[in-house]
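User: Could you check the structure of this?
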Amino acid sequence: MTTGPKLRLGKTLVPGVLAVVLFALMGVITLNTGFGTMTGYPEGISITSEIGYAMFDMTALQSGAMNIGDTEPFLVSFLLIAVVLDAALDASLVLAKREDAGEPVTALSTTPTDADSSGTAAADGGVDQ
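Assistant: Sure, the predicted structure tokens are below.
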């Protein structure tokens, strides 16, 4: 017979309570923050080209009198997003690896396993011995 879940009180409850308090605090800060009026970019300016010129320090190629100054915050955001996405891709590859008895297993292995050593045709068209 199984029993229902039980609430663990004590030290194990503290991280959950702190997470809820932090979430509520961030919600209150977000709701009470004034963002001011929204302004757009000048007509005919490409923010993508401005970020590219800032990335390679080509200030002479920026859009002249109507250029968007101080594009470095955009550049920092762009690079941080790139690093985070790269880390997420690496983590997904690590999590996607399979191991069988401590040995890495490839997804399309042509070597027979103990369960499949019947000598049938392999995935590459050859016959396993």
